[in-house]
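Minutes, structural biology subgroup

Action item carried over from last meeting: produce the structure token record for Integrase catalytic domain-containing protein (Trichonephila clavipes). EB confirmed the sequence was re-checked against the source entry. Recorded below for completeness.
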Amino acid sequence: MQFWPINGKGIARKTVHNCIACFRQKPTGVDQLMGNLPSERVTPSAPFLNSGVDFCEPFQIKFKNQRKGIFSKVYVAIFVCLATKSIHLEAVTDLTTEAFIAALKRLCARRGRISTLMSDNATNFKGAAAELNRFIKLICNKNETLANYFASEAIQWKFIPPRSPNFGGLWEAGVKSFKHHLYRALVNSKITFEEFETIIIQIEGILNSRPLVPLSDNINEYEVLTPGHFIIGRPISAIPEPAILDISDNRLSRWQYTTKCVQTIWKRWKNDYLNHLQQRNKWQFEKNNVAVGCLVLLKENDLPPCKWAMARILEVIYGTDGKVRVVKLKTATVLTRSISKICILPIENNNVN
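Output recorded by EB:
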């Protein structure tokens, strides 16, 4: 005998939806409403007081300008100010902790101290954070005054979740912009270290001359807001200005004029740039939070979906808005991952909050 089940199409769809084997062949990821910007990005501050850092891939250069000069690798550390998008570039010869600390010292000597530094979980960043903390503890154990000073002045290092570059989109975009200009300047070029350093500093000036917001419709405003305004108080690629050395001092209120210029820059930063940052191009809808105990697939970029490992959510980490975007997973070890790196299996007990 043959039978036709009532609502057979719906039953078949539900069966396929709850099939673990089918889900593993075409898993569905997890996302959440885009969170609010961190306070470091929306609070007026000195350039590079709150920064993010990353390295780009190595480049081949010569350390001696000779016909048979030996080529060596050189890397570029890219520091990005979280508030103003200012960029600072430092060339280093390797990816060791010592080389990065030296680059960090050069940054602080030229741009001022850093309060907050964000990065991924690369070993040189982890090693630098541990080395700085060890040095501060060594000093603080000997002097209470220094301990109180470093409690407020030490660098607060924040690491994004492992394998989650979307949490560091600001400095990832800085790396992309730097490579865009560098590859066009080094087309089949064999250059020395001094020439390479000159080129990257010129690229730094170009990147710090980019408009932060579109040009205003006001015909009286011919100058667009750039990161250079926050670094030196004017555009880095400035047009020629008339000399005012021959004008008497009583005709110039320099302090008031300088103060007004700075206040105007920050007013435009608040009215134009902050509004521009609030635009959300994706993750625009609120989703239910994932729950502890859910069985999930762990995404691996170098494996097909059918071979992704299974894990169980051990702990959820809430953001400032109460949304879960980072979880701790139980596998053979405990891993920390962004929710964009997991897929919740369609099992009846896999509930979300």
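Discussion: The CA atoms of residues 334 and 341 lie 15 Å apart.
Next step: EB to file the record with the rest of the batch.
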